[in-house]
Amino acid sequence: MRPYYDHAGITIYHGDAREVLPQLEQLPACITDPVWPNSVFPGVVDPRALFAEACNLLTCETLVVHLGCGSDPRFLGAVPDRFPFIRVCWMRYARPSYRGRVLVASDVACFTIRRQGRG
To answer: Any bridge partners for residue 29, and if so which?
Structure first.
């Protein structure tokens, strides 16, 4: 498996997480911007189930999930119980744009951490 980007200690893999994650030595944290329910990706029938499958492959201690301002937060129900919610962090303000009549800005990241003694 070849990285999509690899420079200065930052490595990005582009592919199906269910295939990539088992091949990686997982570090303490995972930052992800998963396929969202309101996205259009060919072949992705159930984005929530796909996200749940990928989360179940994680062995990291900390999970950070990027949420767009138009994303339904109920999607986070796919995060396993071993990653309880810690906090929401507003991302740095960027020039807003529009998606139809919706103003797109103020994305957030949800931070979780694995409970001690749980898989």
So the answer is: 62
Residue spans of alpha helices (H) in the chain: 17-20, 47-56
Q: What angle do CA 108, 2, 110 make, to 5 degrees?
A: 15
Q: Which phi and psi angles does 99 have, rounded to 5°? A: -120, 95
Q: In which element (H, E) is residue 89 found? A: strand 85-90
Residue 27: half-sphere exposure toward Cβ, Cα within 13 Å: 7
Residue boundaries of the structural domains of the chain: 15-113
Residue ranges, the chain, pLDDT below 50: 118-119
- Model confidence, pTM: 0.71
DSSP 73: G
**Residues 62 and 111: beta-carbon distance below 8 Å:** yes
